[in-house]
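Data deposition worksheet. Section B asks for the primary sequence of the deposited chain exactly as it was used as input, without tags or linkers unless they were present during the calculation. Section C holds the resulting structure in token form. Section D is free text for depositor observations; keep each observation to a single sentence. Incomplete worksheets are returned to the depositor.
Section A, Depositor: J.P.
Section B:
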Amino acid sequence: MTHRLFMLDVPENTQIAAVAAEAPDVTVDRLGPYFVIASDKPVVIDRRASGARHAVWYSCVGGLEGCRIVQWDKDALRLEQR
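Section C:
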């Protein structure tokens, strides 16, 4: 089952979505005003690789579908299926 993370498509989040897109088995599309990061496997996004400052990092998640956040700290955002 595919799980999805919705992230507002604003300039501050563009690099986070780009880092997610580099991971195998991850697709990044757009739906309305959101990036949609989708995968059938766990997803890990490295904060430092994205260059996101903490304020942007901790406000980037707009919604989840079929998954849960198991790590969201200064190092990474990790999603797994429910």
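Section D:
The CA atoms of residues 47 and 53 lie 8 Å apart.
Helices lie at 11-21, 47-50, 54-57.
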